[in-house]
Amino acid sequence: MKINCLGGGPGSMYFAILMKKSYPDAQITIYEQNKHDDTFGFGVVFSDQTMEGFRDADEPTYHAITNSFEHWDDIDIHIKGEVLKSTGHGFAGMSRVKMLILMQERCRELGIEMKFEHRIDNPEELRDCDLLYAADGVNSIARDQWSSEFKPNLDFRPNRFVWLGSDFNFSAFTFHFIESEHGLWRTHCYRYEQDRSTLIIECTDDTFQNTGIGITDEDATVDYVANMLRPYIGDAMIIKNRSHWRQFPNITAETWTFDNVVLAGDAVHTAHFSIGSGTKLAMEDAIALHGALIDTGNVPDGLARYEATYKPEVESLQRSANVSQRWFEEAERYYDTLDPIQFGFSVLTRSLRISHGNLRLRDEGYVDSVDKWFASQAANQSGVNLPEDPPPPPMFTPYKLRDMVLENRIVVSPMCQYSADNGVPDDWHLVHLGSRAMGGAGLIIAEMTNVSEEGRISPGCTGIYSDEHVSAWKRVTDFVHEHTKSKISLQLGHAGRKGSTTLLWDGFDEPLPDGNWPILAASPMPYKPQSQVPKEMDRADMDQVVADYTAATERAEAAGFDMLEVHMAHGYLLNTFVSPLTNQRTDEYGGSLENRMRFPLEVFRAVREKWPEGKPISVRISANDWKDGGTTPVDAVPIADMLYAAGADIIDVSSGQVVSDEEPEYGRLFQTPFSERIRLELGKPTMAVGGISSFEDANSILAGGRADLCVIARAHLFDPYWTRHAAYELDWVGYGKVEWPKQYDTLNRNYVWRFDSAEK
User: What is the pLDDT of residues 135-180, one digit of tens each?
Assistant: First the structure.
């Protein structure tokens, strides 16, 4: 076997080492344009978990690294004169030059040829082999050479950063958040050997421009950073090394392999330095590809398996890295809004890969301090006395909206059941909603319930447009109030252009085969090509819809609901006015955002006027249309602001389902950043929804200030008692905590049930 490696970084050498061990007769050559000890940067950092992976792959390399690195467990966060310390994280740092030398020695030991100061201008000349491993960095010539095959994408991010060194010995991985006359600075600092540390200094482009420092002016950079860090590191030396102010490149590629060529490391993917090092990811590439080649026994199948199985893992890591990166890009929002202790928790959980529970395993004392702070805030906000030792987990703290006090922060999301007869909810709805209230959620939101017969999504959708509906709904609200501590809300909606469709299980968003009713929208645009074309609403139609919402509001009060939610999301009637993708009007209801919001606000104000003063109203919005030209998370802030000004108490922040050709980026907690943006920029309450599946997620969202309530859908379909089971797992069951319904209390008093055991 003949293998050529383009690029002489740690990832390339590690792949060569692993392959040479498995194929001792293989001819492996590494081509590197720089000198053997010429490298950019100062130190590299690995987590303990990463190091264990290195041990399994090649123990001699693992021991060579571990005998040379500096290890620490703590993270220090400096903010506004405070130092927040969290332990139990486990990091190792070492000199990048030393690591290169150690790996070069291992390559020589195994008989791998290394050609330094050997520039390759045309990577095609290295194709005469079984495998070309192209790990030639961010400025990859291999990626450029075969760009039509790999289809790469480079996105240079807005923040500026610079790599520097220092002889200061940091005792922990250290973040500084420093406010100067030019703006807010963030640092990422760690010791990689005695008397040597890496400093990454980061700021917005505006802050950098305010300094007047040139992008390549290293002397001015060193002077500025030394002065800024003097209160923290004294007169420690600041060291430069091609220390130019850069913008981080997010690199992805549609395809990683082509014929006998594979891209690896920074050539094909990057992950922001706030979540780990490129060296770590490059070495994990080597481990994964080596494993795929060994398992399949040949290059073509090995490359196919590598891309099919490992690429999704890296893309998942990149999504987390992007979340962490955006956190640092927008650090001003957190710095200006959050209390230091909550700010620190937000830093530690920024990528959402470390949760409230995971952080507790690392540092129980730190999380206890966060929970105590959060509980004190909740007690002040709600007027409810809470235990202090131990404090409740964040999800089990109360929350007040107007006169309504929720026992906990968990909300059952409105989920259409398509099971009503002429809009009338029946026993299915009683059991569906009643069981979830019995399950312990603080707030139950009934499915989107339509304000008129023509406003239904399907013939099976619930309504609130007749007195018959009132009595049927009152049966549900009475049960919830009599037998549980939950509150219950009704979501008012009008399907608009997504109306007159089949039941979900008969075809998703498909028009009825017969018996269609007329539908309305902001503009005469069908949802799907085969969908019915809606009528463009005129003023008479608007007046009728306002009257329908007003009447529905009065009926909802008569039915005994504690709260209302007005549905302005997901491509339904009101959302067709909000989104520029569905609103092509040229009158006063189209064009600017203010005009597009005119009619939805008119409806909302009519609802607010009829709804009792002491009862809250939420609004569900689509914060992202997931389509070019549509609503973006930036637009969602003024949308929410207008709704708050009109009397909304909390915004339920969802996204998408506005147009049928959307391109959403699904994933765990994928909509939480939209909630966080609105909450922090406006200082108003929000509900987070979308991909929240565990109590760890809920506690992390709440403690990090990302939302005030967590709205959970599918997990509640799977387990109506989700909240009670979370209380059990968090040891928050019993008097003064989460109590059982009195009908079950005898069982609870006399038996201790274990979900993982048949014993009692």
Answer: 999 999 999 999 999 999 999 999 999 999 999 999 999 999 999 9
C-alpha closest to that of 160 among 227, 220, 102, 244? 244
According to DSSP, residue 138 is labeled T
Confidence of residue 758 (pLDDT cuts 50, 70, 90): very low
For residues 492 and 580, is the Cβ–Cβ distance under 8 A? no
Q: What is the CATH number of domain 1-70+93-153+254-353?
A: 3.50.50.60
Q: What is the mean pLDDT of the chain?
A: 93
Write down the pTM of the prediction: 0.91
% pLDDT > 70, the chain: 98
Q: Is 353 left (phi over 0), alpha (psi -120 to 50) or beta?
A: alpha
Q: Hey, where are the domains in the chain? A: 1-70+93-153+254-353, 383-750
Contact assessment for residue 23 and residue 5, using Cβ atoms and an 8 Å cutoff: no
572, 666, 735, 751: the catalytic one is 572
The end-to-end CA distance of the chain, in Å, is: 62
Is 383-750 assigned to CATH 3.30.360.10?
no
Residue among 638, 515, 611 nearest 557 (CA) = 611
> Has 572 been annotated as catalytic?
yes
Distance between CA 428 and CA 685 in Å, rounded?
32
Alpha carbon distance 265, 247 (integer Å): 18
